[in-house]
Design a protein that fits this description.
- The chain has about 425 residues and is an alpha/beta fold.
- It has a domain of about 300 residues: Metal-dependent hydrolases (TIM Barrel, Alpha-Beta Barrel), CATH 3.20.20.
- It is about 30% helix and about 20% strand.
- It contains twelve helices and 19 strands.
- The longest helix has 17 residues.
Length: about 425
């Protein structure tokens, strides 16, 4: 299979240097070629793609999605989740374990990963719960899972409330070469807020606790979807002290100001809540100074009926994978943050965190890239969403920057304007 890409502009290599020129993908391998060679190949290529106006960048990875299978297939399935990932420009995703039953055993996790492999070329990783049935009492068989290359652990929204149990998990996961990702929430406090967003300390109380436990145990810790200024300040200080902590933010926490949306229904209900401009500015500053390591979607699809209802009875979460890049690019561009930085946050950093090689665009490397139009403006419509979850917070919002074509190996996983993705 020979696929020729003409009029290509792209970010090359690990340094993300701007480059131009035709690209050839032959049997899944990317080759940089000259104009003369390009002209010779025009007639023999199986397909010619004109990338005029697009920018080629390393395809995205997301270590924080919810695909709802097993148990909540009415919200999302592996198939529709992987389709949404491809449309969003992602070739690697990792799903949280808050399913029914929770994913807390090798057998369940391996079965799900095997199923995903048959559905899509998008690489699918599955987190294990930290404790059995996510009850917070007994840490899962970390060592047995690690022996079978399952090394990502999270209690997701449940959080491990017991400091002793969380310390045990941190130590065992560290010894097994894995990673704990924590959703920082003080449930004693947040339980008091049912009919509206809970205050910032509902997050940063647990950020502080979890960082302290990571320092005591000298273990790695990754903090999911930070949303507050205080959380960013805590992470910044921890990094300065040499504590092995990394952090992520979600595009919706960068783009959507809580003072500019309505909480009369559950449509903008998410966990942690949207915050105001003061906190958004802190997240942006955290990206600029390296406190924030990556961007992850926290893709959380739900039935739309559970969002168009009173806040107190609605579901937490947004369906967002398909427009993660567009939302993040809109927010970062408005704050003078470069495309290179976005690629590091959405492509390189997630892979590096879990020990994967960066998917650079370079001669003789496997093709793993996405073409985007940085200037294209789009207004998100519910009918455009391929995820089963139509609870996308960007519906009706104008975003700048669109995914145009996703290529992995010798396959096009998504092309703008075509029905079939994944």
């Amino acid at each position: 299979m020979k696929r020729l890409i003409v009029n290509a502009t792209y970010l090359r290599g690990a340094n993300l240097d701007w480059d131009k020129g035709p690209l050839l993908i032959e049997d899944g391998v990317l080759k940089t070629i000259g104009i003369n060679e390009c002209e010779k190949l025009m007639s023999e290529a199986d397909e010619v793609i004109d990338a005029n106006g697009w920018i080629g960048i390393p395809a995205f990875a997301d270590l924080h999605v919810h695909f709802r299978e097993p148990g909540f297939e009415v919200k999302e399935t592996l198939e529709t989740g992987l389709m949404a990932a491809a449309k969003g420009g992602f070739t690697l995703v990792a799903a949280m374990p808050n399913t029914k039953p929770p994913l807390d055993s090798c057998e369940r996790i391996e079965a799900l990963m095997a199923k995903a492999k048959k559905l899509s070329p998008v690489e699918f990783l599955q987190f294990s719960a930290v404790t059995l049935e996510q009850k917070g009492d007994t840490v899962v068989d970390v060592e047995g899972m690690a022996a079978r290359n399952i090394k990502l652990f999270s209690e997701d929204g449940r959080e491990v409330q017991s400091p002793e149990r969380f310390k045990e998990a941190l130590i065992r996961v560290e010894q097994a070469g894995g990673l704990v990702v924590t959703h920082c929430e003080d449930h004693d406090l947040t339980a008091q807020y049912k009919d509206g967003p809970y205050p910032p300390e509902g997050e940063w109380n647990m950020v502080k606790r979890d960082i302290q436990l990571a320092a005591e145990t000298n273990t790695r810790l990754h903090l999911a979807h930070l949303s507050t200024r205080e959380s960013i300040e805590l992470v910044r200080s921890a990094k300065a002290e040499g504590i092995k902590v990394t952090s992520e933010v979600a595009p919706h926490h960068l783009l959507l100001d809580s003072d500019r949306v309505s909480f009369s229904t559950a449509f903008y209900k998410v966990n942690p809540p949207l915050r105001n401009a003061r906190h958004i500015a802190a997240l942006i500053e955290g990206i600029k100074d390296g406190t924030v390591d990556m961007i992850a979607s926290d893709h959380a699809p739900h039935e739309i009926e559970s969002k168009h209802c009173p806040y107190g009875v609605g579901s937490y979460g947004f369906s967002s994978l398909e427009y993660s890049f567009s939302a993040a690019h809109t927010a970062l561009r408005a704050n003078g943050i470069s495309l290179r930085t976005l690629v590091k946050l959405m492509s390189f950093a997630p892979r590096t965190l879990i020990g994967r090689e960066e998917n650079v665009i370079e001669n003789q490397r496997p093709a793993d890239l996405v073409f985007v139009n940085l200037d294209e403006k789009l207004t998100v419509q519910e009918g455009d969403i391929v995820s089963k979850g139509k609870n996308c917070p960007y519906i009706g919002h104008e975003l700048t920057g669109a995914v145009k074509c996703l290529i992995l190996g010798d396959q096009i996983l998504y092309r703008s304007g075509e029905e079939n993705v994944g």
